[in-house]
Automatic annotation (TrEMBL):
InterPro entries: BON_dom (IPR007055), Lipoprotein_DolP (IPR051686)
Region entry Disordered, spans: 30-49
Keywords from the UniProt entry: Signal
Keyword Signal in annotation: yes
PROSITE patterns referenced in this protein's UniProt entry, alphabetically: BON (PS50914), PROKAR_LIPOPROTEIN (PS51257)
Name of the featured protein: BON domain-containing protein
Alphabetical list of Pfam families matching this protein: BON
Limits of the BON domain: 50-120
Domain of life the protein comes from: Bacteria
Signal peptide: 1-24
Length: 128
């Protein structure tokens, strides 16, 4: 019975000493941590602006890839947190892969969803 009392007393003493050694952190450190957390997640307006800018950068890269044969005037670019979605049509199948590769090369693009199709040529009318 005395051994139990001694163990309880030793445990309580350890807890008391542990509490005495603990002390509060300075207020500035907690403010800096709160600011770091707040700064890491953009506001909805900032995220929307970043998405628009990324889509613009991809379209600019498409214009720069015209010398490679890319004709992406019928391709719509949407961005959401680094994920770029391409929709629309191109005249030749090879340009689908080219558009994907050009978009992947833009800084800030994490992945590309390509929903681009080859546009049918309707210049030959009259024949089925």
């Amino acid at each position: 019975m005395n051994a139990k009392k001694i163990l309880k007393l030793a445990g309580a003493t350890a807890v008391v000493f542990g509490c005495l050694n603990a002390h509060a952190q300075p207020q500035q450190a907690s403010n800096a941590a709160a600011q770091a957390v707040a700064g890491s997640s953009p506001t909805p307006a900032e995220a929307k602006a970043a998405n628009r800018q990324l889509a613009r950068n991809v379209r600019r890269a498409f214009r720069g890839a015209k010398n490679q044969g890319l004709r992406a005037s019928n391709v719509t670019v949407r961005a959401n947190n680094g994920v770029v979605t391409l929709t629309g049509s191109v005249p030749v199948a090879d340009q689908i892969d080219l558009a994907t590769n050009v978009a992947k090369g833009v800084p800030g693009v994490t992945s590309v969803n390509n929903r681009v199709a080859v546009r049918k040529d309707f210049s030959q009318r009259g024949g089925n």
